[in-house]
Every structure is written in structure tokens, then in C-alpha cells.
Amino acid sequence: MKLGNTLTTSIANIRFPSIHNSIHFPFTRSPVYCWGNRKMSRLSSNCTSSSLVRNFSSISNDESLASPKPKQQQPWLIVGLGNPGKKYNGTRHNVGFEMVDAIAEAEGISMSSVNFRALFGKGFIGNVPVMLAKPQTFMNASGESVGAIVSYYKVPLKQVLVIFDDLDLPFAKLRLLPKGGHGGHNGMRSVIDHFKGNREFPRLRIGIGRPPGKMDPVSFVLRPFNKQEREELDFTFQHGVEAVRILVLEGFNKSATFVNTAKSMEQTC
User: Which UniProt keywords apply (predicted)?
Assistant: First the structure.
């Protein structure tokens, strides 16, 4: 038998592995893949092994097939403080609850579950995971719920935003701060206590104004809003929702600038 015939027969008997099974690609969008409905699908009739080889061979040596996975983003915890029950719905002390409700509605996040002694919901703002919570422990024990959520999910305190009412701010005024004390607010006092005294977490204060005359502050914070106040407060909630979006997506400084220089409804009319 001639050498040429022997070589031809030997090559014909070699079994090459299927390229479909031997090449594994990273889960990233690339000209190598055939895609359908935004998800990676099996090779279709329009994506043949020959085209796969051409695309695969065209990848430069500088591109790594085993590119690192994107770092998973830490979730934000956004907490509104208030008192549970119909008796307290719509009162000044519950504007933290109402702000969280506005965020949930704007971002399409359901808060129908009860976890960690709070009405609780998970979702996204942009591509950032967020958790929304309204503690059902009553105001003075809010920290029991908030502390449990932070501990369980290991949320960094710099990504825990607490929203609450403030007697010392003009009505419907927002103020975003990176840290601070409780300012006499019993809900914030409880939260700080359950953070072991750590005050290094952002907070969004919502002004409810001062009680008129000699009215007891306790009675004042449990009063509902009148129609005009409600209209102005709804305007404030719109700004608050946008402020939280900026905070989560672009950082504290941009959000603080937006919040702390925002005009009131009267100034925009």
C-alpha cells in the first residue's frame, strides 16, 4: 500500500469531537452567540457550526473568554417610620410610611408580605436591588424591625435610608443628611439603639411643621392633614421619589443637592 493512501485512510478514521459540546462560552452578549428573546438559545439553523468557527476565530487574543462576572450590587434598605393601624393612617407621624408607599407605587414594588415585623417588599430601582419596609412595631420600637432586617441581609449602614417626620422642618420640606442623631424622634432613637449607637446612615427628613399655639407636640403629630396640606405633601412625595432614585443610582451627593435645593410647590406655581 502506498504511503499517500495510508495517510488518507488514517485521517478519514480520525473522529473529531463536536464543536457544540467542546466549546463553552461565558454568559455574555457576543457575536459568537445566536440569541432569541434576549436570552441565550441553542444553535438555530441560521447559526451553523461553520459560522460559529468563523466568529470564534475572529475573537482577538486580547479578549478573554472567561471574563469575570460583574460584581453583584449590594441592596439598599429603605425604611419609612410610622405607626400601624387605621387609627394612624394619614397622620403627620406617618409620613415616613407614605413616602415608602409612594416609592413602591412609582417603582412597581409590591409590599403585601410581612417579614421581620414589617410590611416588606423587594424590587429594583433601575438595576439596583432595593428592599422597602414599614415597621409594624409602633414607632417607639421601630429599631426591632429595622435591626433584624439589616442583620439578616447584612446591609451596609451606608445603604440604609430611614425616612421620618420632623417637627423642626417647615411643612413639606425635605432634608437629606448622611448621618446624625435622633433629634428627639423616638423612632430614630430606637433605630440607633438597635444599630448599637451607630449613627452613620443616611436619613430623609420630612417637615411637618410646628404645633400651633400651645398644642402638645404628641397631639399634633397624630393629627391628619387638611386638604391644602395634603396637596402640598403629595408634591413633596414626588420630589422624594426622585431623590431616592438619584440616591440609589447616582450617589448621596447628587441626591442631597437635588433635595436640599428643591423648590416648594408655591415657588413652582
Answer: Hydrolase
